[in-house]
From TrEMBL:
Residues 13-276 form the Peptidase S1 domain. SMART domains: Tryp_SPc. GO terms for molecular function: serine-type endopeptidase activity. SUPFAM superfamilies: Trypsin-like serine proteases (SSF50494). Keywords: Disulfide bond, Glycoprotein, Immunity, Innate immunity, Secreted, Signal. Residues 1-16 form the signal peptide. This is Peptidase S1 domain-containing protein. Its main location: secreted. InterPro entries: Peptidase_S1_PA, Peptidase_S1_PA_chymotrypsin, Peptidase_S1A, Ser/Thr_Proteases_Immune/Dev, Trypsin_dom, TRYPSIN_HIS. Gene3D superfamilies: Trypsin-like serine proteases. It is found in: Secreted.
Amino acid sequence: MFKILIFFYLLKIIAGNPIKDEISTIGVQNASRTDSPWFALIEIKSNGLRCGGSLISDQFVVTAAHCLDSLDSLDSLSLKQGVLIKLGEWKTDIENDCEESNEECESVAEIQPKSVKIHEYYDKSDKSKQNYDVAVIKLAWKPRMSEIIQNIELSTSDSNVKLTNQVLTVTGFGQSTPGRYTNIKKKIQIKIFPDRFCEEKHKGTYSRSRHICGLGYEGVTTCSGDSGSGLFRTVNGKTYLEGITAYGVANCGERDLPSGFMKVATFKEWIKEQIDTLS
Ligand SMILES: *[C@@H]1O[C@H](CO)[C@@H](O)[C@H](O)[C@H]1NC(C)=O
């Protein structure tokens, strides 16, 4: 079950790495209630697993295809019974997510999928499936947009974009300790690395054209963020979805292992096509 989780480790073991000092003040933080309002918490009922996703229009969520691997079928009944999507979620252990209990605030939307499109080239039995680990989910209905529910723009970059050395953000409800999910939305800073770093660490899996190589920074054995969660960056006050958390780790506790994010710039035409055609 660890395969769908992404873990981030201390970077300081890379002796003499020039970025070490620069990143020492960033890491994992609690998100605020209104942070990344496009975040979708995806619950798979059959096995209790969580994934993340991003609301990319008024009714569509993009996630990693492998999040849906455990479903026997993608027909509408199986989707309805097996998957629940929560928009606007902040603290999973309390009913009312307001900062103060007497306050009136927007409520979380819990919506089942209406239909799903998994990338045509994704094959869950194939070792290199990470190459097309993308899926689009159409929600059963349109949520009401609010302070805590907003869609995010897809990357406007072309597929050759290199974000190397930039620090992007992922939010998620991944494990904060192995085997235990966090019950508050977390915000994780991810430094983007040169492709060759991931090519070395993920031999035969990493693709320059389809992936972004990133690594988070946090204390020992921190396992943060879920597959499918959006990797985003803000440029001139506007935030864009650049990546989808896809893979990176088999063993929680292994350090210095970067994650592969699906590169949205490469897949955005495919994603838009699904928005136009999924019924
Ligand atoms: C983050 O949130 C959790 C759960 O609400 C809380 O226990 C913890 O103290 C918070 N951490 C910080 C640094 O605020």
